[in-house]
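Sample intake sheet
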Amino acid sequence: MDNEQLISYWKWLLKGSGGRPGLQRILNKWLLLHIPVGMGLSLLVSLKLQACANAVLLPLAGILIGLSFAWAGNANALLQTEEIELLSKHHKGGFVEYVFIYQTAILMILVTLVLWGLAGLGIYDETWPTMCNPKAYFSLKTLLFSLCSLALRECWQVVSGTHWMLRIRKEIKDQLNKKDED
């Protein structure tokens, strides 16, 4: 067994598999967009977190989860093709990089769903320190709305990554066919 097969998801997340650590896919320049979106929504939405979660965000999260899992299924099928296997040999971090990128997107969506699920249960609205501390409540609200923005991006990344792999698979297949004809 080579090192690529032995690496765990958590090791990849923290240290990488030859490329950059997976955590850098989340903690990157896009946070400069997600945090202001979260702050803006926290200021604009006067509803308590429980009302936000129950009215809009939990139903929306269910849709995002379904969409991401559907596209991850397509990605899984693509990852099993000869063309993507060939491509992964030329990618820093190897094949596991592709697999773990999808897993990270799903993880971020699930974390967001769980935290908003707690909001839907009223935990943040009825417990210390957020109940008595407006700054802590605003920070939590900002975090949750920022996570929504991040989860939306991750959902899009699943779709976009699958489209990219479809296109590159076609290119590789065409090149292999052309090589066979010559």
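Comment: The two ends are 35 Å apart (CA to CA). Residues 105 and 154 are 5 Å apart (CA to CA).
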